[in-house]
Specification:
mainly alpha
Length: 603
């Protein structure tokens, strides 16, 4: 029959059936087995042994046993080892050990390994070590791994050597365990782990062995390799290894993959992997699902997943349930869940419980929970203990707790230590802590640091010729940082510095910003600036605001304004106000002005 088109094209369309690789392999194996069977029937001992091994691998124990016994009787050590394997599968372990011994004595590394395992299972460690060492020294990977496992169980330092030997021969579990051992030996940075629940490894050699084990299909090695790569910022490759591990059934990898996808903005895909991990019993994934639903306002679903996390043994589930109840003002239930997590050792739950008790007026009940959380390493709890003791007037007791929190990077605690050191006259220590707090974003610390530096500034030199060149000092930079964060006193001070160098526009801007935020000094200074610029009516508005807030000088200025205008009664009213507000020199001047206005009014 003539066929149009070439054969290659027809094969691509599927119109010609192509033999699969499996079919070809099966045919080759069938040919090999037939050839081996003929040789065995002709009395070839090696062929008899090989045929027995073929049948044993296939599971045909009845067919394999007579062949292996026949080859063993002719002195074939491989047959003796395989006969031991067959008998072990049938449950005749003692008889299997006898044949393994024969094969091992004849030099079979595989039989020596099997015999070593047999003795270890029976608790005879000296015999197990002897035979496993025989196997390992012949280069048998399984023997080296089993020997390493035995030595590691004893705490023998030589375990790593044999584990490395097995790993170098391609044993994937040995490669994984060697990587874990190297991790334990390597120094880790003292920092919080990622929220994906996987501890990243340290050391390039560990990574090498994780990679080797992962490439051979070890799911936990793939998980740890993904964590290393994620920490290093190689997120794409990390995701591939997490995916590989997750598909092999590693729940922690599915959870970690979920976090990776969430951080990439794909929350829907993240939820799919978290769900898979949570259904496999991963508490961290269940917590992540709970948080996701809580963010969406689906509180009932969130609560269900938090409970699932708790049931999986993750104490964060109880803590998160406490947070959820607290947000919904279910205080009694929040306390219940916080207590459950706190009793399980959750330090942040202990701190949250203490805060809840303190808010309820139970300071006595709060203190031990703050202490427990702080001793367990909670920075917030240490700071809160400082607040608790300071509130009782026990400043000396509060300071060590503030110092502990400050040493861990707590900004507000560093501010409190700085204030305490200033109070004690230790300006150097005060500056150090104020710098830490200011650098951490505390506007109050930036203002206080600027004040410390400002007090040290020498007076500005008088320039006889030319314009004064103003270079911004460090203290001005800190004032400006605090001012830009909304610190009213800093805003007033920045305005004063701007006015001192003649920048009226900049000064007015900062005074106005402070005044509008409620600073009476800012309002007063803005009034002074406006008055100098000839805008006395607007100045009076700001002085009135400052005087109403208790600024005596502003009240005196208003009294003078109204006196000049001839509004004597209004002037007298503001003079009375200035007398009551002070300070003393203002009160004295205001009293004289008031008396003069009274005389004018009664004349």
């Amino acid at each position: 029959m003539d066929v149009m088109g070439d054969k290659a094209t027809l094969l691509d369309t599927g119109r010609f059936v192509q033999p699969s690789d499996r079919d070809e392999t099966g045919e080759a194996e069938a040919v090999d087995e037939a050839r081996t069977r003929l040789a065995a029937q002709a009395g070839d001992v090696e062929a008899t042994s090989v045929l027995g091994a073929m049948l044993l691998r296939r599971g045909d124990l009845d067919g394999a046993e007579p062949l292996l016994r026949a080859a063993t009787a002719e002195g074939d050590r491989a047959a003796a080892n395989n006969l031991g394997v067959l008998l072990h599968q049938r449950g005749y372990t003692d008889e299997a050990a006898g044949w393994w011994r024969i094969a091992a004595v004849a030099g079979s590394a595989a039989a020596a390994h099997a015999l070593g395992r047999y003795h270890r299972e029976r608790g005879d460690e000296p015999a197990a070590e002897y035979w496993l060492r025989q196997s390992a020294e012949q280069g048998h990977a399984l023997g080296a791994y089993a020997l390493a496992d035995l030595l590691e169980h004893r705490g023998d330092a030589l375990a790593e050597q044999w584990m490395r030997s097995a790993a170098e021969r391609g044993h994937r579990e040995a490669a994984y365990r060697l990587a874990r051992a190297l991790d334990r030996q390597a120094p880790h940075e003292d920092e919080g782990g990622a929220d994906n629940g996987v501890e990243p490894a340290a050391g390039s050699e560990a990574e090498q062995w994780y990679r080797q084990a992962a490439a051979r299909g070890h799911q936990r090695a793939a998980l740890h390799l993904g964590a290393i790569l994620e920490k290093r910022g190689e997120l794409k490759e990390a995701g591939r290894w997490y995916l590989t591990s997750a598909k092999d059934g590693e729940a922690r990898a599915a959870c970690a993959l979920g976090f990776l996808l969430r951080d990439a903005g794909d929350t829907e895909s993240a939820a799919v992997w978290w769900l898979r991990a949570a259904q496999d019993g991963d508490g961290n994934a269940a917590n992540a699902l709970g948080a996701l639903h809580a963010e969406r306002g689906e509180t009932q679903t969130a609560e269900r997943w938090y409970r699932a996390a708790m049931d999986a043994g993750d104490v964060n589930g109880a803590y998160n349930l406490g947070l959820l109840c607290a947000e919904q003002a279910r205080t009694a239930q929040a306390e219940q869940w916080y207590r459950r997590a706190a009793y399980a050792g959750h330090r942040e739950a202990a701190n949250a419980l203490a805060v809840l008790l303190l808010q309820g007026g139970d300071a006595t009940g709060a203190e031990p929970w703050f202490s427990k959380a702080a001793e367990a390493g909670s920075v917030d709890a240490a700071f809160n203990l400082g607040i608790l003791f300071a509130g009782r007037g026990e400043e000396a007791v509060a300071l060590p707790w503030y110092e502990r929190a400050a040493a861990a990077g707590h900004t507000e605690a560093a501010l409190q230590v700085g204030i305490a050191r200033l109070r004690d006259g230790d300006e150097r220590e005060a500056e150090r802590h104020l710098r830490c707090a200011a650098g951490g974003g505390s506007a109050e610390a930036a203002y206080r640091l600027a004040s410390v530096l400002d007090a040290r500034r020498p007076p500005a030199p008088a320039h006889e010729l030319g314009e004064q060149v103003h270079e911004k000092t460090e203290c001005e930079e800190w004032y400006e940082r605090a001012a830009s964060q909304g610190h009213r006193r800093a805003q007033v001070r920045v305005g004063m510095l701007a006015a001192a160098r003649g920048d009226v526009v900049e000064a007015a801007r900062w005074y106005r910003e402070a005044a509008e935020a409620g600073s009476r000094n800012g309002a007063f200074n803005l009034g002074l600036l406006l008055a100098r610029e000839g805008s006395e009516p607007e100045a009076a508005v700001w002085w009135a605001r400052a005087a109403d807030a208790g600024h005596g000088r502003a009240a005196l200025r208003l009294a003078l304004v109204y006196a000049r205008r001839g509004e004597l009664a209004e002037g007298q009213r503001w003079a009375d106000r200035a007398v009551s507000l002070g300070p003393s020199e203002v009160s004295e001047r205001a009293a004289r002005l008031r008396d003069a206005l009274r005389q004018e009014l009664t004349a």
